[in-house]
Amino acid sequence: MADPFLYDTGDRSQYGCLGHEVQIEHIKAYVCRPSFFTDKAVIVIHDIFGWMFPDIRYIVDLIAGHGYITICPDFFKGTDPWKTTDHWADFADWMKHHDPTKVDKEADVVLKYLKEQCDAKKIGVVGFSWGGMAVHHLMLKNPQLTAGVSLYGIIRDSEERYNLLNPTFFIFGEKDHTISYDQIVLLEEKLKQHCKVAYKIKVYPGQVHGFAQLKPEDMKPADKPYIEEARKDMIDWIKMFV
Questions:
Q1: C-alpha distances in Å from residue 54, one per residue of 13, 76, 229
Q2: Residue limits of the Dienelactone hydrolase domain (predicted)?
């Protein structure tokens, strides 16, 4: 099995987080707030490397800087994330115990927290890879989420995967070997036929799986314009609906 993430995830610059950790019922979460009051929030769903991975915390802080209460819960509920020392031959078995379509209970806990403790009125969701699949699932199931952005993660084995409840943006890398171009074409064709809400699909030239969450100092120079473009597109989509 090919590695689903082509960047060296073990070689990352240090990151000084701007937010703090909280306990929400049975879930730990990382939260960052803007400097002013807002009733808008965004849930960030991490990839296989979990809620403590520096890249995902950078994304939380980045979104908060655009005026959103931003939270990344531990959707693995205290179990081990995938580690850089793990063997990819074991990945399929690991995924059986970390199903991105089994996030509904935790999502409801976090939505309740945002509404009751943070006074959030509109809530969006973004997710990366594993988290992108979770976003796709939640946008089919949970009408409380005003808008979603799924980055290089889609549900592939359900005929109901095209009936989105609210606006959803799908971001892909052109050279992502975990999601074929044919799968992207099929997604677009089926959404045109079945989807009754706003959606968008965009493929970024030359980009591999996992490209859009890198911190600036970890970007390859040739990729930087596309990473920045994807992030701007992500924020613009959220701002349009949340």
A1: 8, 16, 21
A2: 27-240
Report d(CA 18, CA 167) in Å as an integer.
29
Would you kindly state where each structural domain of the chain is located, as residue ranges? Answer: 20-241
228, 214 contact by CB (below 8 A): no
Rounded distance between C-alpha atoms, residue 173 and residue 196, angstroms: 25
**Angle at 115 (CA atoms; ends 145, 18), nearest 5 degrees:** 90
What's the order of all strands across the beta sheet hosting 199-204?
Answer: 20-24, 27-32, 69-73, 40-45, 122-128, 147-151, 168-173, 199-204
CATH superfamily of 20-241: Alpha/Beta hydrolase fold, catalytic domain (3.40.50.1820)
**pTM for the complete prediction?**
0.93
Q: How far apart are the C-alpha atoms of 197 and 32, rounded to whole Å?
A: 30
CA 127 to chain centre: 1
φ and ψ of 149, to 5 deg: -130, 120
Q: What is the pLDDT of residues 112-171, one digit of tens each?
A: 999 999 999 999 999 999 999 999 999 999 999 999 999 999 987 777 789 999 999 999
In angstroms, the first-to-last Cα distance of the chain is: 38
